[in-house]
Design a protein that fits this description.
Blueprint: H1 3-9, H2 14-23, H3 25-38, H4 43-53, H5 70-92, H6 106-117, H7 121-138, H8 147-169, H9 176-212, H10 219-243, H11 247-278, H12 286-308, H13 318-348, H14 352-379, H15 385-393, H16 396-414
Length: 415
């Protein structure tokens, strides 16, 4: 029986029509026209007609390179590359700290977000003022790399990440769903940037090899100019492509979240059992305590991305129980780390490093408790997934606030 007859026979069976379409979209679309001609008044087939023949009207006839925002993105990418190269020159001269390299990229990503979202002037002025004040303040710090100065440098990316979140969310910075979109953007951005960076590294290796055949060593020039410029410009291009809903990154992130959550849980369980078996003590071993905190941050990141990839109306499944187990495990690790830090503070005194680690662990511990209680209510069918996502998104500014405290007060207090 011809497929167009099957389409007509299954007009009242949407599931069968969908199955036929997925089995062979090309044959279905070709045969559909005959079924549509015979039943032009069918509302079901009219919906399918629009689905199969729909074309975007906004960019019809326009080149990808002339789409709205592309030229602005291109200008920002070139400016980011140029500024990064200029800053790198002063870093090489050791007149400014290497952390200033961020100022060659972050302001331009923020500018792209602001251009795309057009927030209120007060939001724009606030973002611009914070960038200027931070840039001025960071370069007032002495280049002695004391603990307090190093901590300020270490917390600067977190502060910038929250600041970019404000630029991304615009006027809706208090909206949980917009904050959730920013977290999803970050995961998609990292995947896309890494993919393009790998391609760039292959090109760089090929270029260096080709020039080596004619006895020319361009490695230093190439990395100081071409690679550095390209890496900075690529950060703006990646932000543009992700914001254009590129399917590559958007479609792969849910699968990554589902694959990595059980793997991280299994690895962490094996690691903790091994640690107990060999008798490692975070109370006495400083390096092990730092590694413990690094593991905690990694688990927290995986858990957050797993939560954000969950649809607001999705029912609970095995992934939720894995995420809940990860949260409980992370909470145990954080409790041990907190106890060790308090022990070291009481035994060896206050230092900027210990105080900073204590603050971060308290913040994470509080956030994990909130997420765990929200997840518990969800698993008991007392609330939906949105309450778990709220526990993640509403807490984000707290991390930025703590980063600001470390950046702007620690060098003054401890120096």
């Amino acid at each position: 029986m011809e497929i167009n007859k099957l389409i007509i026979e299954n007009i009242d069976n949407p599931q069968e029509l969908e199955r036929m379409y997925r089995n062979d979209p090309k044959v279905f679309k070709k045969s559909f026209s005959h079924a549509w001609e015979q039943n032009p008044n069918s509302q079901v087939l009219s919906v399918w007609y629009e689905r199969l023949n729909f074309k975007e009207s906004a960019n019809t006839g326009r080149s990808f390179f002339l789409q709205k925002g592309f030229i602005f993105m291109g200008i920002l990418a070139i400016l980011a590359g140029m500024c990064t190269r200029i800053i790198f020159h002063f870093v090489e001269q050791e007149t400014i700290a290497p952390i200033n390299m961020f100022f060659g990229i972050i302001p331009f990503i923020a500018a792209y977000f602001v251009h795309k979202n057009t927030p209120k002037k007060s939001v724009i002025f606030f973002i611009a003022a914070l960038l200027l004040i931070t840039g001025f303040y960071i370069n007032l710090l002495p280049l002695n790399y004391k603990d307090s100065t190093f901590l300020a440098y270490l917390h600067l990316p977190v502060f910038f990440w929250v600041l970019l979140g404000l630029a991304f969310t615009g006027n809706e910075y208090t909206n949980s769903s917009t904050r959730l979109a920013y977290i999803k953007f970050n995961l998609e951005y990292c995947i896309l940037y890494a993919s393009m960076a790998v391609s760039g590294m292959v090109l760089a290796a090929l270029t260096l090899q080709l020039f080596s055949f004619v006895d020319l060593n361009i490695e230093e020039f190439y990395f100081s100019n071409i690679v550095l410029f390209g890496a900075a410009a690529l950060s703006i291009v990646a932000a543009y492509l992700v914001s254009m809903n590129l399917k590559l990154a958007r479609n792969i992130t849910p699968y990554l979240a589902k694959i990595f959550s059980p793997l991280v849980l299994l690895t962490l369980l094996v690691y903790i059992i091994t640690v107990i078996w060999v008798g490692k003590n975070p109370f006495l071993d400083r390096d092990f305590l730092l590694a413990f905190n690094g593991i905690l941050l990694g688990v927290l990141a995986v858990t957050i991305f797993s939560i954000t990839e969950k649809d607001s109306d999705e029912k609970k499944n095995i992934s939720d129980y894995i995420n809940f187990a990860l949260i409980v495990l992370a909470l145990i690790i954080d409790s041990v780390a907190l106890s060790a830090i308090v022990f070291r503070l009481s035994s060896y005194g206050i230092t900027p490093n210990r105080l900073a680690v204590l603050g971060v662990n308290i913040l994470i511990w509080t956030n994990l408790i909130w997420i765990m209680l929200s997840y518990l209510r969800f698993l008991q069918n007392k609330s939906g997934p949105s309450t778990i996502q709220d526990a993640v998104t509403k807490y984000l500014p707290i991390y930025g606030l703590w980063a600001a405290i470390v950046i702007f007060t620690f060098p003054i207090i401890f120096n």
